[in-house]
Amino acid sequence: MSELTIRDLRDTDVDAWSELYRGYRAFYLLADDDAIVQRTWGWLQAREYGLRGIVAEDEHGELVALAHLRLFARPSSGALGLYLDDLFTSADARGRGVGGRMLERCAELATESGATIVRWITAVDNTTARSLYDAKGRATSWVTYEMDAAFVG
Question: What keywords would UniProt list here (predicted)?
Protein backbone atom coordinates (compact mmCIF):
# COMPACT_ATOMS: atom_id res chain seq x y z
CA MET A 1 0.00 0.00 0.00
CA SER A 2 1.83 3.10 -1.21
CA GLU A 3 -0.14 5.79 0.61
CA LEU A 4 -0.30 4.58 4.20
CA THR A 5 -0.14 6.62 7.37
CA ILE A 6 0.56 4.89 10.66
CA ARG A 7 -0.43 7.03 13.59
CA ASP A 8 -1.68 7.04 17.15
CA LEU A 9 -5.33 6.29 17.76
CA ARG A 10 -7.58 9.39 18.00
CA ASP A 11 -10.86 9.95 19.83
CA THR A 12 -12.58 10.35 16.46
CA ASP A 13 -11.51 6.83 15.40
CA VAL A 14 -13.98 5.10 17.70
CA ASP A 15 -16.33 3.76 15.00
CA ALA A 16 -13.64 2.62 12.55
CA TRP A 17 -11.51 1.18 15.37
CA SER A 18 -14.54 -0.67 16.78
CA GLU A 19 -15.20 -2.27 13.40
CA LEU A 20 -11.58 -3.40 13.08
CA TYR A 21 -11.48 -4.63 16.69
CA ARG A 22 -14.68 -6.62 16.18
CA GLY A 23 -13.03 -8.13 13.10
CA TYR A 24 -10.00 -9.07 15.20
CA ARG A 25 -12.22 -10.70 17.81
CA ALA A 26 -14.19 -12.59 15.13
CA PHE A 27 -10.94 -13.82 13.55
CA TYR A 28 -10.02 -15.44 16.87
CA LEU A 29 -13.57 -16.78 17.29
CA LEU A 30 -14.28 -14.51 20.24
CA ALA A 31 -17.88 -13.46 20.86
CA ASP A 32 -18.99 -10.03 19.69
CA ASP A 33 -19.26 -8.31 23.06
CA ASP A 34 -20.08 -4.59 23.28
CA ALA A 35 -18.84 -4.39 26.88
CA ILE A 36 -15.39 -5.70 25.95
CA VAL A 37 -15.14 -3.42 22.93
CA GLN A 38 -16.12 -0.39 25.04
CA ARG A 39 -13.82 -1.36 27.92
CA THR A 40 -10.84 -1.82 25.59
CA TRP A 41 -11.59 1.51 23.88
CA GLY A 42 -11.67 3.16 27.30
CA TRP A 43 -8.32 1.63 28.27
CA LEU A 44 -6.78 2.85 25.00
CA GLN A 45 -8.17 6.36 25.37
CA ALA A 46 -6.96 6.69 28.97
CA ARG A 47 -3.76 4.75 28.25
CA GLU A 48 -4.66 2.62 31.24
CA TYR A 49 -2.24 -0.21 31.99
CA GLY A 50 0.19 1.50 29.62
CA LEU A 51 -1.95 0.44 26.66
CA ARG A 52 -1.42 2.44 23.47
CA GLY A 53 -3.20 2.10 20.16
CA ILE A 54 -1.87 2.76 16.70
CA VAL A 55 -3.70 2.49 13.40
CA ALA A 56 -2.92 2.39 9.70
CA GLU A 57 -4.89 4.80 7.55
CA ASP A 58 -5.05 4.35 3.78
CA GLU A 59 -4.99 7.06 1.08
CA HIS A 60 -8.78 7.49 1.44
CA GLY A 61 -8.59 8.12 5.19
CA GLU A 62 -9.97 4.67 6.03
CA LEU A 63 -8.51 2.70 8.92
CA VAL A 64 -7.19 -0.62 7.62
CA ALA A 65 -5.21 -1.95 10.61
CA LEU A 66 -4.84 -1.62 14.34
CA ALA A 67 -2.25 -2.54 16.92
CA HIS A 68 -2.34 -2.37 20.72
CA LEU A 69 0.97 -2.01 22.54
CA ARG A 70 2.32 -1.63 26.07
CA LEU A 71 5.72 -1.43 27.70
CA PHE A 72 6.80 -4.18 30.07
CA ALA A 73 9.75 -4.62 32.39
CA ARG A 74 12.30 -7.32 31.59
CA PRO A 75 13.91 -8.03 34.99
CA SER A 76 16.27 -10.69 33.61
CA SER A 77 17.95 -8.13 31.37
CA GLY A 78 17.22 -4.95 33.31
CA ALA A 79 15.57 -3.52 30.20
CA LEU A 80 12.16 -2.63 28.82
CA GLY A 81 10.27 -4.42 26.10
CA LEU A 82 7.29 -3.40 24.00
CA TYR A 83 4.51 -5.96 23.99
CA LEU A 84 2.27 -6.14 20.94
CA ASP A 85 -1.05 -7.37 22.32
CA ASP A 86 -3.10 -7.23 19.15
CA LEU A 87 -2.36 -6.69 15.46
CA PHE A 88 -5.15 -6.86 12.91
CA THR A 89 -5.41 -5.87 9.26
CA SER A 90 -8.74 -5.64 7.47
CA ALA A 91 -9.38 -8.41 4.96
CA ASP A 92 -9.23 -6.07 1.95
CA ALA A 93 -5.82 -4.68 3.00
CA ARG A 94 -4.12 -8.03 3.63
CA GLY A 95 -1.19 -8.99 1.45
CA ARG A 96 -0.45 -5.34 0.69
CA GLY A 97 2.36 -4.73 3.18
CA VAL A 98 0.24 -3.15 5.92
CA GLY A 99 1.11 -5.70 8.61
CA GLY A 100 4.82 -5.34 7.88
CA ARG A 101 4.61 -1.57 8.10
CA MET A 102 2.75 -1.85 11.41
CA LEU A 103 5.48 -4.13 12.80
CA GLU A 104 8.15 -1.69 11.62
CA ARG A 105 6.33 1.13 13.44
CA CYS A 106 6.22 -1.02 16.57
CA ALA A 107 10.00 -1.40 16.35
CA GLU A 108 10.37 2.38 15.98
CA LEU A 109 8.10 3.00 18.97
CA ALA A 110 10.11 0.49 21.00
CA THR A 111 13.31 2.38 20.23
CA GLU A 112 11.66 5.73 21.00
CA SER A 113 10.48 4.32 24.37
CA GLY A 114 13.86 2.90 25.32
CA ALA A 115 12.71 -0.69 24.84
CA THR A 116 15.15 -3.24 23.48
CA ILE A 117 12.68 -5.73 22.01
CA VAL A 118 9.17 -6.08 20.59
CA ARG A 119 7.41 -9.25 21.69
CA TRP A 120 4.10 -10.83 20.69
CA ILE A 121 2.30 -14.15 20.44
CA THR A 122 0.02 -15.60 17.79
CA ALA A 123 -2.00 -18.73 17.28
CA VAL A 124 0.04 -21.68 16.05
CA ASP A 125 -2.36 -22.17 13.12
CA ASN A 126 -2.26 -18.51 12.01
CA THR A 127 -0.02 -19.44 9.09
CA THR A 128 -0.58 -16.31 7.02
CA ALA A 129 0.45 -14.00 9.84
CA ARG A 130 3.27 -16.33 10.86
CA SER A 131 4.89 -16.03 7.45
CA LEU A 132 5.06 -12.26 7.99
CA TYR A 133 6.22 -12.69 11.58
CA ASP A 134 8.95 -15.10 10.48
CA ALA A 135 10.17 -12.49 7.99
CA LYS A 136 10.16 -9.62 10.51
CA GLY A 137 11.04 -11.35 13.77
CA ARG A 138 12.05 -14.70 15.12
CA ALA A 139 10.10 -17.39 16.89
CA THR A 140 11.39 -18.13 20.36
CA SER A 141 11.81 -21.45 22.09
CA TRP A 142 9.54 -20.34 24.94
CA VAL A 143 6.16 -21.96 25.51
CA THR A 144 3.29 -19.76 26.71
CA TYR A 145 1.18 -20.86 29.66
CA GLU A 146 -1.80 -19.32 31.35
CA MET A 147 -3.78 -20.04 34.46
CA ASP A 148 -7.12 -18.77 35.67
CA ALA A 149 -7.03 -16.24 38.48
CA ALA A 150 -8.06 -17.57 41.87
CA PHE A 151 -11.18 -16.03 43.31
CA VAL A 152 -11.80 -15.96 47.03
CA GLY A 153 -15.40 -16.17 48.00
Answer: Acyltransferase, Transferase
Domain 4-136, classified CATH 3.40.630.30, yes or no: yes
User: Which residue type occupies 153?
Assistant: G
Q: What share of the chain is helix, strand, coil (3-state, %, to 5)?
A: 40, 25, 35
The DSSP 8-state label assigned to residue 48 in this structure reads G
Determine how β-strand 4-8 pairs with β-strand 52-58. antiparallel
State the Cα–Cα distance between residues 71 and 80, nearest whole angstrom: 7
- Residue 131 contacts residue 94 (beta carbons within 8 Å): no
Concatenating the DSSP letter of every residue in 79-109 gives EEEEEEEEEEE-GGGTTTTHHHHHHHHHHHH
pLDDT tens column, 51-74: 999 999 999 999 999 999 999 999
In the chain, what percentage of residues exceed pLDDT 70?
A: 98
Could you tell me how many residues make up the chain? 153
Mean pLDDT, range 47-52, rounded to an integer: 96
